[in-house]
Design goal:
Length: 211
């Protein structure tokens, strides 16, 4: 197998088994990244069909409240690297997303809000978890490159230079029975935690419905 070939399901299973046997992970551990380790260029360039390859995977793992970077050889079945990375939070994974969705569905206040709107089966509701805040991202390039068009309409409440609450609308055209109809997609609904419980999102949603 080529050193840069896509990882296989068998290699992933081997990797998990190696980490478990080495006492590095348990059933509570979560994986937040996994990719093929890229060997030195001369090793890759010198590879020929039929050569034995030391296939290694690089991983980001959360275990016992800490974040670790690991490198595992699935050829030698050895852990080459296991290093704690203090002061960081790994990217959100599917495990966390599904936990958030389940917690939301089981929340009594959420269920009550659905009931007030005539929804009695929460399994029919799509829940999209999003992290709060913009993390200091600069959206100027997004605008300059034409991704922010007049079909994307943000409704925002600003305090000083900071957006503290937002509801965004995307205009989307659908062809239904030969007729083009325009619908709206509502997304990026969020309020800064320090400004919650003041009805800001309600004000924005009412404005969206009015427009």
């Amino acid at each position: 197998m080529h050193p840069l070939s896509m990882m296989t399901a068998e290699e992933l299973e081997t990797c998990v088994a190696v980490l478990r046997d080495a006492g590095k992970i348990d059933d509570s551990s979560t994986f937040h990244g996994c990719c093929i380790y890229e060997p030195p260029k001369d090793e890759v360039a010198g590879w020929q069909h039929g050569d034995t390859t030391d296939r290694r995977l690089d991983l980001v793992i959360r275990h016992s409240g800490e974040v670790f970077e690991a490198r595992v050889s699935v050829t030698r079945c050895e852990v080459d690297r296991w290093e704690a990375v203090p002061g960081v939070v790994p990217r959100v994974g599917f495990v966390e997303l599904f936990k958030v969705m389940e917690a939301c569905r089981n929340d009594p206040t959420f269920q009550e809000a659905l009931t007030q709107r005539g929804i009695t089966d929460s399994s029919t509701v799509q829940i999209d978890p999003w992290p709060t805040g913009d993390y200091g991202f600069d959206f100027e390039n997004w605008y300059v490159n034409g991704y922010w068009t007049n079909r994307y309409i943000p409704y925002s409440i600003v305090d000083g230079n900071a957006i503290v609450s937002n509801v965004s609308v995307n205009l989307i055209d659908f062809l239904i029975d030969g007729e083009t109809r325009t619908f709206i997609q509502i997304g990026t609904v969020m309020t800064n935690p320090e400004y919650r419980n003041h009805g800001l999102n309600r004000v924005l949603m009412e404005k969206v419905l009015e427009d």
